[in-house]
Amino acid sequence: DAGVIQSPRHEVTEMGQEVTLRCKPISGHNSLFWYRQTMMRGLELLIYFNNNVPIDDSGMPEDRFSAKMPNASFSTLKIQPSEPRDSAVYFCASSLGPDTDTQYFGPGTRLTVL
Amino acid sequence: GQSLEQPSEVTAVEGAIVQINCTYQTSGFYGLSWYQQHDGGAPTFLSYNALDGLEETGRFSSFLSRSDSYGYLLLQELQMKDSASYFCAVRDRLGGGGNKLTFGTGTQLKVEL
Q1: Residue among A33, A42, A45 whose CB faces B106 most closely
Q2: Percent of chain B beyond pLDDT 70?
Q3: Which residue in A2, A22, A39, A93 could disulfide with A103, CB within 3.0 to 4.6 Å?
Q4: Mean pLDDT split into 10-residue runs, chain B, 113 residues
Q5: 3-state secondary structure at position A31
Q6: Is the Cβ of B50 closer than 8 Å to some Cβ of chain A?
Q7: A30 touches B at CB < 8 Å
Q8: pLDDT of A54-94, one tens digit each?
């Protein structure tokens, strides 16, 4: 199995630009999670989907962030407009379903906003 | 809300045993997970405890006491490759029927010769 796939692996952009991060979960997994990791705030859950439906988006920092999951094999996290404080590593993770305890993380996208 | 506390750094020598503690405060507690993350890498799952007691997986063991809101990760026969950050994470059930992980701030383990 290829594992969770994220793209791009690195993104450098300028303040005010739109950024789109992409994730392909492990085939057959029904739950998908977006996390953000920074030195200051650690690993934070941004949003969580179950069967393509957003379950909890309370971690999304503000309206500039949005996430979609149009089908079981693809999700996007969009930041518009981006700000320097959005610089972080963004991880996508998937799990078999809501009753499983193991989440499988993708390699992450390192975002730098200048 | 949820909060977790774990030491920020632990140093040990190769071949030794090290214990990383985690205390938590949460509503709707469902279980405690442990993840390992090497520098520049992604978190990877190590273990999960839903019930009190010790779970053993090779050189790694994890313990949970629900009454004390406390758990630990025990690493035996330390190897240099065990140098990494270790996160405890509380699992609680969301109202929508899903499960959510709240991560601690992580413990950086340094294994020395």
Answers
A1: A42
A2: 94
A3: A93
A4: 90 97 89 96 95 94 96 97 97 67 94 95
A5: strand
A6: yes
A7: no
A8: 988 989 988 999 999 999 999 999 999 999 999 999 999 99
